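Suppose you are handed only two things: the residues of a chain and a line of SMILES describing adenosine-5'-triphosphate. What would the bound structure be? This form records exactly that question and the answer produced for it, so the two can be stored side by side and reused later without any lookup.

QUESTION INPUTS
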Amino acid sequence: MDNPTLESNSGSQAHTDEPQAGGQLNDYLQKIINSIATPVVVKDKHHRWVLLNDACCSFIGRTREELRGKTDYDYFPKQQADVFWEMDDQVLLTRRENINEEQLTDSNGVTHTILTKKNIYVDAADEPFIVVVITDITDRKKFEDALTSSHQQLRKLSAHTEAMVEEERTRIARAVHDELGQSLTALKMDCAWLERRFTEGQTDLLARTQMMARMIDETITTVRRISMELRPEMLDDLGLAATLEWQLQEFKKRTGIDYTASIIPKDIRVGDTISTAVYRVFQETLTNIVRHAQATRIDVLLTADAHMLLMQVRDDGIGMTNEQRTQTASLGLLGIRERVGFLGGVTEIGGEPGHGTTIEIKIPLTHTNFGGTP
Ligand SMILES: Nc1ncnc2c1ncn2[C@@H]1O[C@H](COP(=O)(O)OP(=O)(O)OP(=O)(O)O)[C@@H](O)[C@H]1O
Ligand SMILES: [Mg+2]
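ANSWER OUTPUT
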């Protein structure tokens, strides 16, 4: 019992619950596994450590003499030993390899995150042993955790910046629309006032004033367009569905690309954050279609129920390769994925070269961001 070993190759030797006496084979095995820099331990069916390499002893922080014949419960906290034994039992039962991420506290009280790979070895006498190979992944986990948390921070920062930009755009759009618009309307009225006061002989002055009035009209149109492009007021007033329809009409006027739009239900109303995000995704999708797709028509589907909003934009253009889909240098598609991802949604980019492109986004809705009629 004090000196348990991995059974030698003698099939004739009877197996009892007592660990077997060591033989030459054990010395040989011991030498071989000592040459492995990764911690390796072999357990018998009673979970006793029968063979440990040097790397394993120094990882745990104890001598081989201290460890041999002992079990996980002798040196590790109970909750860790429970997990080790549960995995041992799985391997013994299924006789299949098992890989598990676990915690191990060494003799200095340092807790490591380890990846434990367990395999079954059955000797000539049909006695099962568990071969355990341990990889210390503590540092890797730390890096992964740091990376995940920094990615989350960057995501938050990017969403925060987007929200600030959006706020600023809304403010400028309103100022341009209201203040500039009002001044221009006042100027237009002054022109009309002047026009009425010219005498018959003042045709030059009248013509010049009429020209000014026309220029003011054009400027009013430009101001409206700039304000709309910055942020359409109708997104806040009439909602997402109406804004997308308006944008499609403008798109057709500008590019000649035909469209169909299915909006179900017609009065889809979602909260500010989501409607802004979907609107910006839609803008980028249309810009991409104009810039890259060579499409002749697009089909748009916007639908929502109490749980999910779905927008699908399909074009009949040249399509995309896998490489283009995953390009990291360009920011348009990345921005779409980020916006949607931040809202807990998913983006799918489908299609093949020569068969058009489909961009589909799904965003989960809750009762707070889904409202019925406008
Ligand atoms: N509808 C589309 N049809 C065909 N190719 C497309 C379409 N949308 C995007 N692509 C391809 O995918 C690439 C990546 O698009 P993405 O919007 O990320 O970048 P971009 O439009 O090139 O630049 P930007 O960062 O200014 O948006 C494009 O360069 C283009 O080759
Ligand atoms: Mg783009």
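WHAT STANDS OUT: Residues 284, 287-288, 332 surround magnesium ion (ligand 2) (CB under 6 Å). Confidence is low (pLDDT under 50) at residues 8-21.
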